[in-house]
Design a protein that fits this description.
17 helices; about 75% helix; mainly alpha
Length: about 400
């Protein structure tokens, strides 16, 4: 009895530590998913020693391999390893909710932006979106397209995404990339040759993992049918964001074209408010996927507000977490297969092309309307990439620059 009480007490202390650690990260982790992984390593691996360096590297590799928000998946798995499923939910909530609350405040302040000065502020946020997406394309191209083969995959992916607009073009580009990777990337040194046997300690059975995978695929294929049959706007909203979360490779920025196809092309959200919210999402800490909460709060028709935000937030994160839970127990065997790594290398190169196409439309075409707009966007890009200024500072500077242009 005392041993059982001691075990529960230890688990409760672990979960308390998870809450404190991830709330701190949720309030201070600016800079996007790559920066988040650095914050996690410093706080949880180096300082708190929740797992070894090699185990953390394996976990990061897995989450980059899967669709979904890589940094949030890493955080979820870290919470799972420390405090079980409740620890995983605590980690996700503490890391995610601060930025959700900030974006909801922005969404409910939309009436302010009817004034010309407010419209200039919104335009500045759209311009910073140009700089942020350009930075993402630049950084991802250097990391994911380092040779001629993968650069060629990225270029063809741009063509596919441009000439076949919307989700079909994006998915077709990623599928082409995976097939091209099997051919062009099979001889790349994709495996760790050190033979490190350190494993990720996760309290998860293969039976539960298979159940999570089953839920993922049932929701992916059944939700579109249920949305059509029921004619429910709430289900249609959940389906659109679940699909976006399930099909996005390469991190938060790549979800932009998928969400644009889901909410702007359907008329649920205006293009201006979409890009303004995307710009505002750069100014808050935590995962970029919280942009979904902003969109859920402003969509029309109902449900919107808090209810719509909750639907979209849960829907966009759920598929990535189900996939993570479904694959974790099998990862040690899966990661040894070079063909799997080769396919993912090609898919990641295609992601660069999809994002490059999105940089032109809708980001550039909706924001850069005159030479001063180009100058502001270029200055923001240089601040981010050359001067290494914190993204939230660049967002504020660019937003005020947009407001200034409206008064000129």
């Amino acid at each position: 009895m005392h041993e059982a009480d001691g075990g529960r007490s230890h688990l409760a202390r672990n979960r308390g530590e998870v809450l404190r650690a991830f709330l701190k990260l949720g309030l201070t982790s600016f800079g996007g998913p790559i920066a988040h992984l650095g914050y996690f390593r410093d706080e949880l691996v180096t300082r708190r020693q929740w797992m070894s360096e090699s185990a953390y590297a394996d976990l990061v590799a897995l989450c980059q391999f899967l669709p979904g928000p890589a940094s949030s998946q890493v955080g979820f798995a870290l919470g799972l390893s420390k405090g079980g499923f409740m620890g995983a939910l605590i980690a996700w909530s503490a890391f995610t909710l601060p930025s959700v609350l900030l974006l909801l405040v922005f969404a409910h302040s939309a009436f302010v932006f009817g004034h010309p000065l407010g419209q200039g502020f919104v335009h500045g946020l759209k311009l910073v979106a140009v700089a942020v997406v350009a930075q993402a394309v630049w950084g991802m191209a250097r990391n994911l397209c380092p040779d001629r083969g993968r650069a060629g995959i990225a270029i063809i992916a741009v063509l596919i995404a441009v000439f076949l607009p919307g989700a079909p073009g994006q998915l077709g580009a990623i599928f082409f990339g995976a097939m091209g990777g099997l051919w062009l990337c099979k001889k790349l040194p994709l495996m760790d040759d050190e033979g490190n046997d350190d494993r990720i300690s996760i309290p998860l059975s293969k039976q539960k993992a298979l159940l999570a995978l089953l839920c993922f695929f049932i929701l992916l294929f059944a939700l579109p049918l249920v949305a059509v049959i029921s004619s429910s706007q709430a289900i249609a909203l959940f389906e659109a964001f679940y699909r976006a979360g399930a099909l996005v490779f390469g991190g938060g920025h790549v979800v932009l074209p998928l969400l644009e196809a889901s909410v702007v092309e359907t008329g649920w959200v205006s293009a201006d408010m979409f890009l303004a919210g995307y710009g505002a999402a750069q100014a808050v800490p935590g995962p970029l996927f919280t942009f979904a909460a902003y969109l859920g709060a402003i969509v029309v028709p109902e449900p919107n507000g808090i209810y719509g935000a909750a639907i979209c937030l849960i829907a966009i994160f759920l598929p990535g977490m189900l996939l993570l839970v479904g694959v974790l127990p099998f990862w040690d065997d899966l990661r040894k297969k070079n063909r799997v790594r080769a396919a993912m290398a090609g898919a990641n190169a295609a992601v660069v092309g999809v994002l490059a196409a999105a940089l032109y439309h809708p980001v550039w075409t909706s924001a850069v309307l005159a030479p001063p707009d180009f100058a502001v966007a270029l200055a923001a890009f240089i601040l981010l990439t050359v001067w290494k200024v914190s993204p939230w500072k660049v967002v504020l500077l660019t937003a005020f620059a947009g407001a200034g242009l409206s008064l000129a």
